[in-house]
Amino acid sequence: MTVASGAAKATIYHNPRCAKSRQALALLQESGADVTVIEYLKTPPARDTLAALLARGGIAPRHALRPDAPEVADDAAALDLMARDPATIERPLVETDKGVRLARPPELVREIL
User: What SS3 state is found at 25?
Assistant: First the structure.
């Protein structure tokens, strides 16, 4: 894909089996963004990376857990769980120079393009 000069750079923590994640990726690509795709189940983000991303997005770690994830006592426990078991991370998580969004619904990525 050819990217226009000055196009937004985006990183998506992506699960290709997830419809919402695929929709968010399509929105990023349609916008002309230069997208880096990280399949987080194959290449899980480190706990510190997750903590920094969520803090930058103003997202409490407990709110970044999938609804079917085990209950946790606090945000530190949520980060520990997500680092240990990346399948518990809600998706997709998208980062650009303008911020971080948990793109559920996928249209939320437009806020940071």
Answer: helix
d(CA 97, CA 8): 8
Angle between helices 47-57 and 75-84 (to 10 degrees): 130
What's the Cα-to-Cα distance from 28 to each of 8, 33, 47, rounded to whole Å? 9, 6, 25
Q: Are 27 and 10 in contact (CB under 8 A)?
A: no
What confidence tens digit (pLDDT) does each residue in 75-88 have? Answer: 999 999 999 999 99
Spot the catalytic one: 18, 38, 59, 108: 18
18 is catalytic: yes
Q: Round to whole Å and give the CA distance between 34 and 37.
A: 10
